[in-house]
Design goal:
7-stranded parallel beta sheet, binds 2-amino-2-deoxy-6-O-phosphono-alpha-D-glucopyranose, 17% strand
C-alpha cells in the first residue's frame, strides 16, 4: 500500500486528482469506480477543471458508482445520481450511456447477485476505484458486520451511518434505511484502489490501515490491505500527525 500524507483537504484532493487525470490521459477509455460523500468533492472539482481548462476528454470514459439509496427517487436532491450529476457529470463530456449505478440493476440483482458485477466485467473491469471511508470504517455501504457481501446487494444502513448522513437531509428520519451497494468482491476486483480520508472522524479507520496487521469485518476498509495496488491519501487530521 502506497501511503501519501498530505497537509490538508486541498492537497489530498489535488494529489488524487492528478492520479485520476493521469489515468484518463493515458487510457482515454478508462473505467472509473466512483464514490459519493464529501471526501471526493475536491477530486471531482479537479477533474472538472482539467476538462474545462485543459481539455481532459471523458468521451470514452465509463463510470460505475459504488452505491445508491433505495426508496429515494433518482431526482431527489440527496440521491447519489443527483450528487454525481451536480458535482461531475454535468460539467464534463461523458456519455450518459457510459454512466452506471447499481440501483439500475436492482431487479436483476434480486434475481442474480452477480448482475452489476457482470456489467462491470463486460466493460473491462474497473481501472481506478475511488473510495472514501465511512466514520465506522465502511466502504461503499458495506457496514461493519459479522459477514460482508461479496457481490453488489441490498444493504441495511446502520444507525451510525444514517446519523452521519443526516447532515445532508433535514432530519435523520429522512435518511433512507436501505441502499444498494457494491460488494467487497466488486470493490476488491478493481485494478487500483484510491482511498481518500480527511478529518479526525476517519482517524480510527485510517489507523487500522496504517497499522496493517488485521483484517476485520468490523472495519470493512481493512480488506483493502489484501489488495496489490492501493494508494491511500490522507490529510494530517486523519493520519493523526
Ligand atoms: C457514504 C458513502 C460512502 C462514503 C461515506 C463517507 O456513506 N456511501 O461511499 O465513503 O459516506 O462520506 P464522507 O466522504 O462524506 O465522509
Amino acid at each position: 500500500m502506497q501511503v501519501i500524507k498530505t497537509k490538508e483537504y486541498a492537497e489530498m484532493s489535488h494529489v488524487a486528482g492528478v492520479i485520476a487525470e493521469g489515468l484518463i490521459r493515458q487510457k482515454p477509455n478508462a473505467v472509473l469506480g466512483l464514490a459519493t460523500g464529501s471526501t471526493p468533492l475536491g477530486l471531482y472539482a479537479h477533474l472538472v477543471k482539467a476538462h474545462q481548462q485543459n481539455g481532459l476528454d471523458f468521451r470514452h470514459v465509463t463510470t460505475f458508482n459504488l452505491d445508491e439509496y433505495l426508496d429515494l427517487p433518482k431526482e431527489h436532491p440527496q440521491s447519489y445520481h443527483t450528487f454525481m450529476e451536480e458535482n461531475l457529470f454535468q460539467y464534463v463530456n461523458i456519455s450518459s450511456e457510459h454512466i452506471h449505478f447499481p440501483d439500475e440493476d436492482y431487479d436483476a440483482i434480486e434475481e442474480n447477485a452477480e448482475a452489476y458485477d457482470a456489467r462491470i466485467h463486460r466493460a473491462g473491469g474497473i481501472d481506478l476505484q475511488v473510495l472514501g471511508i465511512g466514520r465506522n470504517g465502511h466502504i461503499a455501504f458495506n457496514e461493519p458486520a459479522e459477514e460482508l457481501a461479496f457481490f453488489t446487494s441490498r444493504v441495511t444502513l446502520t444507525p451510525s451511518t444514517r446519523e452521519a448522513n443526516a447532515r445532508f437531509f433535514s432530519s435523520v428520519e429522512e435518511v433512507p434505511t436501505h441502499a444498494v451497494s457494491s460488494g467487497m468482491g466488486t470493490i476488491l476486483q478493481a485494478r487500483h484502489l484510491l482511498i481518500l480520508a480527511n478529518g479526525e472522524d476517519k482517524r480510527d479507520a485510517v489507523s487500522r490501515l496504517l497499522d496493517g496487521h488485521t483484517l476485520t469485518t468490523d472495519c470493512p476498509v481493512t480488506f483493502a490491505l489484501m489488495h496489490p495496488h492501493v494508494t491511500l491519501i490522507v490529510d494530517e487530521a486523519a493520519a493523526g500527525c
